[in-house]
Each structure stands twice: as structure tokens, then as C-alpha cells.
Design a protein that fits this description.
The chain is an alpha+beta fold. It is built from 4 helices and 5 strands, in the order H-E-E-E-E-H-H-E-H.
Length: 158
């Protein structure tokens, strides 16, 4: 039963995490234009001037994104066990919430100390890939629970 709607939503979770890994998550440019900061899934890059820059690796974003995509892929294959599939979606929700919390921490607390604390920066397509994956995960879990209710009702009618 791979043709069910929750399979499509779980595939969107995998695609969203791929977008999260492939594209920039957040960026900020100083008002004066001399400094900039970029957050990707691999690093936080702070360009101080034309010659100086700092890089802070953030590999745990990569680990969390790959783990989330792997759990979603495994959940797709567990279409016969809807209870396990729903539990895997709950695990994915936790993983994506942790990822979102770390991004918020980096964008508001780590980078505020770098330059222009009043300037917030802007979220890029990688961030919106994560948001889309979170929404798709919620919808997948909803349709999995709906299928389970229908199966339970059909057993009750027998």
C-alpha cells in the first residue's frame, strides 16, 4: 500500500530535509556592508572583512537531517504497521523540533554577538525546507491515524 497519501507526505519530508542540507539556512549582512554571516547545515561562516573570516562547524545539523530523512524513509516501508509508522512520525517530530531549536539558538544568540545585534538577518530556502518537512510530517501522521481508525472501525463491524 505504498500508494497511500501518507507515503507522499513522508516523501516530502525526505525532500524537505534534502533542501535543508543543500541550501543556505540563514544569512545576515551588516548595515555598513563589511561583515556578513551565513548559516548552512555544515557551518556558520562569519566574513569579518575581505581577508578575515571565521568558520564554526555545525555538523550536528547534517546528522539530524540525515537521521530525520532516514526515519521517514523507514516509516514509508512500514506501511503494514500503522502504529509503528505513527511512532516513527512522532520521533521525526522530535528530531525536527530539536533541529529548529538549534537553528533559532544560532540565529538569535550565537550570531547576535558577531555584529549588529539589532539586525535579525533573513531565513533562506534551507530553513523553509525544514518548515515544509515539519508540516508534511504532521499531515502524514494525521493520515496514518485516520487509516488506523478506519481499520479499527471495520474490525468492529465484522
Amino acid at each position: 500500500m505504498l500508494q497511500r497519501i501518507q507515503t507522499i507526505f513522508l516523501a516530502i519530508v525526505i525532500i524537505g530535509m534534502g533542501i535543508f542540507l543543500a541550501f543556505p539556512i540563514w544569512s545576515k549582512v551588516a548595515i555598513a556592508g563589511g561583515q556578513s554571516a551565513d548559516l548552512t547545515a555544515l557551518r556558520l561562516h562569519h566574513q569579518i572583512n575581505e581577508v578575515q573570516s571565521n568558520d564554526k562547524p555545525v555538523y550536528y545539523f547534517v546528522v539530524l537531517a540525515i537521521l530525520t530523512a532516514a526515519v521517514a524513509a523507514y516509516a514509508i516501508m512500514q506501511y503494514k504497521n500503522r502504529v509503528l509508522q505513527s511512532a516513527l512520525c512522532a520521533v521525526n517530530s522530535i528530531l525536527m523540533t530539536v533541529t529548529m531549536g538549534l537553528i533559532i539558538y544560532f540565529t538569535f544568540y550565537q550570531t547576535a554577538k558577531l555584529f549588529d545585534p539589532q539586525l535579525a538577518g533573513k531565513y533562506d530556502i534551507g530553513f523553509f525546507g525544514l518548515v515544509g518537512a515539519m508540516l508534511a510530517n504532521v499531515f502524514a501522521n494525521r493520515f496514518i491515524r485516520k487509516d488506523e481508525r478506519e481499520v479499527q472501525q471495520s474490525k468492529r463491524f465484522r
